[in-house]
Fold each of these.
Amino acid sequence: MLETIRNQPFLVAILAGTTAQLLKVISFLMLEKRVNYRRFVQTDGSPNMHSAAFSALALAIGLRDGFGTMAFALAVCVMAIIVVDTMNVKNATSRQAEAILQIMDRLRKKTPARGARKAGLSYTPLDVFTGLVVGIAFALLVV
């Protein structure tokens, strides 16, 4: 357990993800002029926590162990999968949720205007990109 706590790339990843979530709370406070602590645990929004954590992990491993190592190659592959899946899975989930909401409205005999209800689960490319930037910046500052 103590080795995990001393693992610098792991700590950088955890701190980058936590920082991304804190930035969501702060940006909501600045935009809405009120505190919403739920933003800290919500997965949607900018910056994306997943891309922040895994880009920080990959870069921290590269900076610490070298960019030619197997650990760095593995970390980059995992990061790429996480980033692509974050976009695809969340977008698919959002479309499914919107379809379910439309079905529920029709069953209740409410026929909403087209596209009136949105599930709001998907990430935009900007959310993922800002997460990548946060992760890279965090790794460069800490390692």
Note: The helical segments are 2-6, 8-32, 49-65, 70-107, 125-142.
Amino acid sequence: MQKYEIILYWSNEDNTFIAEVPELPGCTAHGDTQESALKNVNDAIQLWLDTARELGKPIPAPRGHRLMLA
């Protein structure tokens, strides 16, 4: 499994934990606990990668360091 940065945070608006993968556009998941959000986002990463391969789309290599977000 490739290692992508995951940003995990609590959303008051959604009343759940949100996990986002900034290097994979649109790759997000949620869960009632931090652990479930991380499990769900790891499933989402695999689905994202499988779909990109199936469609012949480029797959970004993990950067391996913290992204700088504004």
Note: Residues 7-55 form one domain.
Amino acid sequence: MSKFGELIETNVPVLLDFYTEWDDACKEMHAVLRDVAAALGDKAKVIKIDVEKNSELAEALRVKGLPTLMIYKNGEMKWRQSGEQDANTLIGLVKEFV
């Protein structure tokens, strides 16, 4: 959990993607997130978190549906949604917090 605190305690927005390898919707989000990361460059971080390897964290954050996306800035959750999103929507959302 302490590593999670270090991840989100930044002054740049952090887009977290909670996923599993076997879920089709999660697999489809991989390419979208690559596009988002490329478009945002160093203005934000995009971090993928496998819920099977980080079940304690996923449980603590009450991640139920996959993929679940969250935006944090300065340690505070700014946005959260489960389900697929398109790259332009995510880029726009993250830019609100840059």
Note: The first strand starts at residue 14 and ends at 19.
Amino acid sequence: MKLVIAAIKPFKLEEVREALTGAGVGGMMVTEIKGFGSQSGHTEIYRGAEYAVNFVPKVKLEIVVADGMADQVVEVIQNTARTDKIGDGKIFVLDVDQAVRVRTGETGDDAI
């Protein structure tokens, strides 16, 4: 099993969710996060005063899938979340040693 973690722009969430559902993803966890990378934040003006925004709002997706589906999930996220502008996000893929469905006790691929 693989854990796919993606940080994307918040306005792309629904489009990515629909594309992943269409690709056969059965569930995901979503968290609102703040961070910075190449963007390094930016400055804004509020009530005439300029201030620095050091962290940019993002949405983090966490999706556990069977090994054979990981590349497809990454491709779907990459193609759907892309705006061709700085700050589109990052995708990480990690190995998952074990998964357990709390309600039934199913383990491994059966749990996802």
Note: The chain has a mean pLDDT of 91.
